[in-house]
Amino acid sequence: MSPEQVDQLFGYVQERCLWQFSSRSWDRQENIDGILATATDLLAGREPKRDTPMHKIFYADALLMVGDFKSRFPWIAEVAPEEADALMGSLKDRLVEHTITKSLNHELNHSLY
Amino acid sequence: MPMVLLECDKDIPERQQHIYLKVDGEDSRDYLPVSNASTIPGTLSERGCAFCGAKLVIGGVLKDTIQMIHGPIGCAYDTWHTKRYPTDNGHFNMKYVWSTDMKESHIVFGGEKRLEKSINEAFDEMPDVKRMFVYTTCPTALIGDDIKAVAKKVMSERPEVDIFTCECPGFAGVSQSKGHHVLNIGWINEKVGSLEPEITSDYTMNFIGDFNIQGDTQLLQTYWDKLGIQVIAHFTGNGTYDALRGMHRAQLNVVNCARSSGYIANELKKRYGIPRLDIDSWGFSYMAEGIRKICAFFGIEDRGEALIADEYEKWKGKLDWYKERLQGTKMAIWTGGPRLWHWTKSVEDDLGIQVVAMSSKFGHQEDFEKVIARGQSGTYYIDDGNELEFFEIIEKVKPDVIFTGPRVGELVKKLHIPYVNGHGYHNGPYMGFEGFVNLARDTYNAVHNPLLKLAGTDIRGTAPAAFKEAAE
Amino acid sequence: MGCEITSRDRAGIINPMYDCQPAGAQYAGIGMKDCIPLVHGGQGCTMFVRLLFAQHFKENFDIASTSLHEESAVFGGHARMQDGVMALVRRYPHLRIIQIITTCSTEVIGDDVEGSINVCNKMIKEEFPDREVYVVPVHTPSFKSSQVGGYSECVLSTFKTIAKKKAEPSGKLNLFPGWVNPGDVTLLKRYAAAMDVDASIFMDTEDFDSPMLPDKSIHTHGRTTVEDIRASSGAFASLALARYEGASTGEFLRDEFEVPHHLVSTPYGIANTDAMLRKISEITGKPIPESLVKERGIALDALQDLAHMFFADKRVAIFGHPDLVIGLSEFCIEVELKPVLLLLGDDNTKYKRDPRILALKDKVNWDMEVVCNADLWELEKRLKDPDYKLDLILGHSKGRYVAIDHKIPMARVGFPTFDRAGLYRQPTMGYQGAMLLGEAIANAMFAHMEYTHDREWILNTW
């Protein structure tokens, strides 16, 4: 896993996805955690959970994202199942940093919607 | 590149915090325009008020609901004939507006009796209509009329009617955004869960943040029908009052306009555990992606693929015809907020258009995070842009077409720049596959308008435009 | 048989005919050159009115807002007023007039507009000693009167602020047409020129119909200048054409500067135009020229083709501004149309005593209703009765669905007329205006006959 690879995935998510930009930091964290966990399963060839409404929504978002990863970044086919965790972990760190910890959005931590 | 202080803003330097020029290597950790902040008085901003955010944008879309505006006549007059949201029952929502026509004596002695009388009259005059929204306005909020108490009294006397009250005076908040918020939160607190919807499908959702502009909702509804998905409530395009009371029963909330309606989706998730899926309904690849996600949620991926294949078959060729001819067109988007991030990448990917400047009237920083992530370097990102700023930005980026409202459209016409109505559309719908072809067609026709080319010609033969044309 | 004058008996309004006072004040304000009105209130009070003007004229007009927010509702909006004025003065170096137009909210809060203007005047004098900027207080709470009164109030306040002393005799006639279209202003200028009368039209809105030019310059603004208003106190007379929309300023110039003031019936139709021209002739001693006799004849000639053949006995409803509705009803009677319903849309109690209305009462020998303080539901409600027969609606575009849904031909006239192209360019006043309106009515009826196959074959040989 190279930093360039993480850059590519991060660039994709920022450009295509909306879930990392939910209204509040806890929603962002929940989405990032849930979707990337599901994506890790998909990349590692594990059957993701689809039994609760939240699992289903993470699956829907992750499925499309992983599909696009595979078509846009051929190198991802070479990622071994055990490397998927680390790759998604790095992506997650990047997303959390950009959209939560270092976000300049003043409204992220309002207690109400 | 730091935030930009335009020449026209040298006397109001605080505007620098609102205008960002993106350069390579920067992201929204570095710079994020201040937004959803108070407008500087006298700047000729484009913003409206909280009342219009509630009434004109959301409540007034409903096709079966009286919109009673408790205030002087202007608030009613001004939020009537200013939107293009038809309905399938003959556009009841666009034909009528109701006001308590407050006069000075009601300001002095209170307007509650006036409101009660007006509500009863409205139901008497239109006996088939049983649902009503009541809005406060600046003066009725200032004098403290208790509109909830009045609504309660009328409901107790008329058990067949239901009334929702929305306290959103025009001075609340900094823009129409406050009104969106008040209506969203009021509705979930008071009305969601008060009626059980009839469930007719194994797959149910609410479609949130789409207001049937020129038939958007009705076009997308043909997709949901083909997929066998029941839309319990449209919030609020072509929608009904009672359908919105049953939002709690949907399995999924699909959100298009996150700015105006994200609040209710968040609350439905928090209170009822209904997941929220944000999609972009404008653009081919976005629409296909949205359909795929919805279908993946329900486990009906095959139906989704069949629908997308059908739609691509029907419309992709037409879209590509325009894409070929719109390559490199420079567009500016000056609209409310979300359409900046909905459109910047979809017009780039699907139509080859470069978005060179964007201004949002009422977006929040969340909207700027989204649009800066999606938009290009070299593009201006402006919060609450005003008229002199628009002139200066136009000089800098020289757009070929501007997506904005009709009034600004009339202004830029004088500069020989065509506009496409970014709020009410020229000839929509613009959502969905067919809709995006409509948007492409209107853009193409705007950019290739022969009159605007003639406008640059000085018939005395002295204009530079004449030489330019000869050189072309 | 006869004319009955009533008022709306409902408290609420369903589909208003008029906007509120600040909207009318803004319309008057944009009639000035080097002027940006500043509306002291919520942002919607400005944004929607600008949109309304853009819809009607297909043009943009500059109007600013003080963007009132909650803290002003609590602590007062003085700072925002002053900041607004100074932002405008600093960023628009050509600016010479700013009307501060109040709204319901700032009147309820009770902001001291005059006090703030004193502060602004000092600040402007200090920062821009070479500039003279008039800051005009315009009190237009939305809960009083309507756009009609607001228009009148803003014209009057602007004159009171600028016309401070008696000017040298200017040899000019002050002409107050009221809230009219650029087409009317052009016509009035043409008539004045034909009579060799030097008239100042307040407000001169001719350039509200403005061009796209090769050099991309923008000229969409009023033409009335500070100098025009200063000179108004030295005019030899004032002539007001609209009792409710401009007469008060003529009265002010009379009371303050002894400028003789005259009021005529609003010149819609032939006889009213005759009366206006005779009055101008009487004031100036100038004869009515041959060219206007000819124009009058052409209008009569055209209308004569329509009157007893197509118009006679057709029942008409008219709504809009009071001076317009009353004037149009007189025009209708001239061309044998039967006005049966006049809707006047605010709570001004003077309408019921208007001499023109009283004259109609004497004149009509059919059932006619005048509803004061009316809304458009008064019209629609009557049409829900299958026995209520109406052949024509005259009014502005806000009533379009009444006509569409009840399949009644409608000629657009007044303000706003956003659902028809270019109407603001045409006069409705004068002989030419009467002719054009008569022809628009006829063509609306003809198209209706065709779409409904109602004796459309008559036109085979017309």
Characterization of the model:
The complex is a heterotrimer of chains A (113), B (472) and C (462). Chain A is built from four helices and no strands. Chain A is mainly α. Chain B is built from 20 helices and 14 strands. In chain B, strand 13, helix 17 and strand 14 (419-421) form a beta-alpha-beta unit. The longest helix of chain B has 26 residues, at 301-326. A six-stranded parallel sheet of chain C has the order 1-13-12-11-14-15. Chain C has a four-stranded parallel sheet with strand order 4-3-5-6, with helices on both faces. In chain C, strands 8-7-9-10 form a four-stranded parallel sheet, with helices on both faces. In chain C, strand 11, helix 14 (322-334) and strand 12 (338-344) form a beta-alpha-beta unit. Chains B and C meet through helix 1, helix 2, strand 3, helix 4 and helix 5 of B and strand 2, helix 1, helix 2, strand 4 and helix 3 of C. Strand 3 of chain B pairs antiparallel with strand 2 of chain C.
What is the average per-residue confidence, as pLDDT of chain C, rounded to a whole number?
97
Tally of alpha and pi helices of chain C: 18
The chain pair with the largest interface is:
B-C, 82 and 79 residues
Radius of gyration from the alpha-carbon trace of chain A, in angstroms: 14 Å
Offer a concise description of the structure.
Chain A: One of its GO terms (molecular function) is nitrogenase activity. The complex is a heterotrimer of chains A (113), B (472) and C (462). Chain A is mostly helical.
SSE order and pairing:
The complex is a heterotrimer of chains A (113), B (472) and C (462).
Chain A (H helix, E strand, L loop, with lengths): L2 H14 L8 H19 L9 H20 L8 H21 L12
Helix pairs in contact in A: 1-4, 2-3, 2-4
Chain B lengths: L18 E3 L28 H9 L6 E6 L2 H6 L13 H4 L2 E2 L4 H6 L2 H14 L5 E6 L1 H5 L4 H11 L4 E5 L9 H15 L13 E7 L5 H12 L2 E7 L4 H5 L6 E4 L2 H15 L3 E3 L5 H15 L2 H26 L3 E6 L2 H14 L2 E7 L4 H10 L5 E4 L3 H11 L3 E4 L1 H8 L5 E3 L10 H16 L2 H6 L8 H8 L1
Parallel strand pairs in B: 2-3, 2-4, 4-5, 6-7, 6-8, 8-9, 10-11, 10-13, 11-12, 13-14
Antiparallel strand pairs in B: 1-12
Chain C lengths: L1 E6 L5 E2 L6 H9 L8 E3 L3 H14 L6 E2 L4 H6 L2 H14 L5 E6 L1 H6 L3 H15 L6 E5 L8 H16 L10 E4 L5 H13 L4 E3 L24 H6 L5 E4 L6 H11 L3 E3 L6 H15 L5 H15 L2 H5 L3 E6 L1 H13 L3 E7 L10 H9 L3 E6 L4 H7 L8 E4 L4 H7 L3 E3 L17 H22 L11
Parallel strand pairs in C: 1-13, 3-4, 3-5, 5-6, 7-8, 7-9, 9-10, 11-12, 11-14, 12-13, 14-15
Helix pairs in contact in C: 1-2, 1-7, 4-6, 7-10, 12-18
